[in-house]
Write a structure and sequence with these properties.
The protein is mainly beta and 642 residues long. Helices cover 7% and strands 44% of the residues. The strands form 14 sheets. It has a 4-stranded antiparallel β-sheet, sandwiched between helices. A 4-stranded antiparallel β-sheet has the order 11-12-13-14, covered by helices on one side. α3 crosses α6.
Length: 642
């Protein structure tokens, strides 16, 4: 059922099927101005003609198929789409598109996720595959009899098989819907058709096939507003988007369509200086713009009047501003003013209060940490009323630093040594200690670091991974849960394992032959996604006795909202959204967002609080737009670029 085009298992017996006869003569239709000929004309005539397929809406032409990633001769009809596959024997050299399902997908109806009916109904056809019945509506007339009395012209198939090949499985229960003519009719959707019940018509016309091909041919496909950098400040969302009129600018939302609006057109007209690097602060959001020769730090509380430039940093060569993060009442960031190189700065939201914190690498040299993985390896960790971060200088190399937002309170904490050393990841263990993934004297290890005294203790060492251009870091995903830090370790030729430390020597955890993939701390509980060999094994909870309890079998990206979990299941052309209640128990399906082809979803383009979750997703009708999930369900919040 899930294949895009009809490709039935009986093709293995294709040598015994009837071959195409000489190509049918051209037949033209003044109603639409298009013609059919050759194999398409023959197929059209043999399998129901005008009643089943309708008039042609296009000429036959090569069209790229997203699923097979090949181009095939294709022709659109009012009720079908024909695709020629000469590599198959007739009648399977013409395959029909799943237009019934395509129309559902356009409406973001994910048919496999619809509720199944309880079971077979008396006098109806029951389809276990999709969990739906097909029944007659009156006196032996209706959807069931129509389905049974029409089918693909293949004598090798029985009546059921011929109907299945032509219409496919039912995807929905019958329900009242408004059709393309504005009539309210009983409707049931199938893979390749839509059945409509017209009780006031003569018997032979009481069941009509919807013009699914024509409707798909006429559907509008919108441009994308492309919301980026979703950032929550309390209950107020900030993000950037392009509405097609003002260029990419700063937007805000209170979770309602009316309250989702442009904050201010900073570069008047369709041009834009691309506001980016949004960082939440206590009373609004800081962001960066580039203006010809300068990087500008801006602040906004969501009102046009208080969206203002804070500081312009200019330099004769290579000015830069990046990696904003909230600290106290202001923001910490790195910038290059052309004098001190790339160094940490702090701003309280005023020009006078925006200053270089410390020239860590004195002179024009930069203090940002470079690794083999990134030119700017940033790691911020709030600790003890300040911020732990990474920086380097010529004397000490890459180290852990801490700042309270003042020059006097900006100091080096760690003292990793050796010509080749670096720091990769930080995670708080308690109020005084960080767990650090770092290399020291060329050896990669896990360390405990006292942020007040600088005392550091090695808890475990792991061999470097070798043999590729960009080798993975041996230990990563440091995740604190209830006074312990868990992390994954990759061992060359062995795979990935789970380790834990409470500040003492780290220990491996037996996962009964499974491998950790993603880690999450939420509600004082440790969740982890596991693999069994190469097969995804779902999400599990690690109990206090180190035993495992399965939480969900699904392959999800999960985040903590503060009042439950939200999860996204990424499939080839859809994202399914799940949500738990405030008790952090089982995940419940909320809805799907479906696209035309392979999906693009970035977990970084999400923002959640205890009330709702925002994310940027593309669907067929609206393009990439802003969606919201809350207790009421999943919905498009606003079509920013209609």
């Amino acid at each position: 059922m899930m294949k895009r085009w009809i490709l039935f298992v009986l093709m293995v017996a294709s040598l015994g099927l009837p071959q195409a006869s000489s190509a049918a003569e051209q037949q033209c239709f003044e109603q639409t101005g298009f013609c059919i000929e050759g194999r398409f004309a023959e197929y059209w005539q043999q399998n129901g003609g005008l009643q089943v397929f309708g008039y042609p809406l296009s000429s036959a032409q090569d069209v790229y198929n997203q699923d097979s990633q090949k181009a095939f001769l294709t022709q659109q009809f009012e009720r079908a789409r024909f695709e020629l596959h000469p590599e198959f024997a007739a009648p399977y050299d013409v395959l029909l598109g799943r237009l019934g399902d395509d129309l559902l997908r356009y409406r973001n109806i994910d048919s496999p996720m619809l509720p199944r009916e309880a079971g077979a109904k008396s006098g109806c056809l029951w389809f276990e595959t999709t969990g739906h019945n097909v029944c007659n509506q009156a006196n032996g007339l209706g959807f069931m009899s129509y389905w049974q009395n029409h089918g693909l012209n293949d004598p090798k198939l029985d009546s059921f098989g011929r109907s299945l090949q032509l219409f496919g499985y039912p995807l929905t229960e019958p329900a009242m819907e408004t059709n393309a003519n504005g009539d309210s009719v009983l409707t049931q959707h199938f893979e390749r058709a839509r059945f409509e019940w017209h009780p006031n018509q003569p018997d032979q016309f009481k069941v009509l096939l919807g013009l699914v091909g024509k409707e798909l041919h006429q559907l509008p496909y919108s441009a994308s507003g492309e919301p980026f950098e979703l950032t929550l400040v309390g209950d107020q969302l900030f993000f950037t988007a392009d509405d097609g009129v003002h260029g990419r600018e700063l937007w805000t939302s209170d979770g309602t369509e009316a309250g989702t609006r442009l904050v201010k057109d900073l570069e008047v007209g369709a041009e834009s200086n691309w506001p980016h690097q949004l960082a939440a602060a206590k009373h609004g959001v800081f962001f960066v713009q580039f203006n010809t020769t300068a990087y500008e730090l801006w602040f906004s509380d969501g009102s046009a009047n208080n969206t203002r430039i804070v500081k312009s940093i200019q330099a004769d060569y290579n000015p830069y501003m990046t990696n904003l993060v909230a600290l106290g009442d202001g923001v910490l960031f790195f910038a290059n003013d052309g004098l001190s190189g790339m160094e940490p700065w702090y701003s309280d939201g005023t020009e006078a209060g925006t200053r270089l914190l410390r020239d860590i690498n004195p002179g024009a040299g930069h203090s940002n940490v470079e690794t083999g993985y990134s030119y700017f390896w940033a790691e911020y960790t709030p600790m003890a009323g300040g911020m732990a971060f990474l920086a380097r200088n010529a004397q000490a190399g890459a180290q852990v630093w801490w700042t309270d937002g003042t020059a006097a309170g900006t100091r080096q904490i760690s003292n990793f040594a050796g010509e080749i050393h670096s720091v990769f990841e930080l995670e708080p263990l308690d109020a005084q200690h960080l767990i650090v993934a770092a290399s020291n004297e060329g050896t990669f290890g896990i360390w405990k670091l006292n942020i007040h005294t600088g005392e550091q203790q090695n808890l475990a060492n792991y061999p470097w991974i070798t043999g590729s251009i960009r080798n993975p870091i041996p230990a990563s995903q440091l995740t604190q849960v209830n006074g312990e830090v868990f992390y994954t370790v990759m061992s060359q030729g062995v795979g990935t394992s789970l380790w834990r430390t409470n500040g003492q020597k780290a220990q491996a955890i037996d996962l009964a032959g499974k491998s950790p993939y993603r880690l999450l701390s939420a509600n004082n509980t440790f969740y982890l996604q596991l693999y069994q060999g190469t097969e995804q094994a779902g999400w599990w909870i690690l109990n206090a006795d180190a035993s495992l309890s399965q939480f969900s079998p699904l392959d999800l990206i999960i985040a903590d909202t503060g009042q439950g979990l939200i999860g996204w299941e990424l499939l080839s052309n859809r994202v399914r959204v799940y949500r738990s209640t405030s008790d952090y128990q089982a995940m419940h399906y909320q809805g799907s967002v479906l696209s035309q082809s392979s999906f693009t979803f970035y977990p970084s383009d999400t923002a959640s609080n205890s009330q709702r979750s925002f994310f940027s997703l593309p669907d067929q009708q609206h393009g990439m737009e802003l969606w919201v999930s809350d207790a009421q369900g999943l919905r498009l919040l606003k079509d920013i670029r209609p």
